[in-house]
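Suppose you are handed a protein chain with no further information: no name, no annotation, nothing but its sequence. What can you learn? This example shows the usual starting point.
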Amino acid sequence: MTDGEDVVLRETRDGVTLLTLNRPERLNAWTLAMEERYFDLLAEAAHDPDVRVVVVTGAGRGFCAGLDADALAGVAGGTPLSGRPRRPQSFPLEIPKPVIAAINGACAGIGLVQALVADVRFAAAGAKLTTAFARRGLLAEHGLSWLLPRMIGHARATELVLSARVFLAEEAQTLGIVHRVTPPDELLDVTLEYARDLAEHCSPIAMAVSKYQLNAHWGVGLDEARRETFELVDRMHRLPDFDEGVRSFVEKRPPTFAPLASGPGLPPPLAD
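A reasonable first move is to predict its three-dimensional structure. Written in structure tokens, the prediction is:
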């Protein structure tokens, strides 16, 4: 069984880091080692100026089939997954760079949560998704009850959570969970092409601030969102990326934006 650093593989090229959940013999079922390695690599990508976009996928036939059966049995028997503090499953939302999920196969439970906390989701045709929790005697864990209704509406989320039924990538696209469905053998190429386009043409700091806005303003009123946005716009206008973005557009050439190395939240010099 894959363990240690091999449980999540990393490859960086053209400004894009590809992270591959790597327990194919178990459909990449989630373990504490996988969680810690994946989140560590996300944090490293956030601070690496050579990384502008992150893509996550699964090795073999699955994306992530949920919590590993042995770990699940242990939790059911009263053994916690970890005796030390864990980062929340929403940790990818704190990464100030786009995280794109390439859902290549089975995506269930905590695996679905990880897909939902990515910023963009592509899926292979026929990939199977499920909330899964109710069929394991569990409630909607890890923020699913907050994430899913905001993404697809309360009524649709209620049905998926209560039934915990399997639905395919094509239905997920109709519901608004998945942005694009591709033939299985084209999924990774299409996802990486999209990621490289972001890395080449979009300002890293603009993407970081936009990601912050989309998450921070999700639950606030319009007036509060507008107030903070006005403050951020004033600061953004003073940054070199704004001038470069305008100049490259006027001069009809690819932009040359500065790299970004930043931790969670607003990146400097935007943060107070």
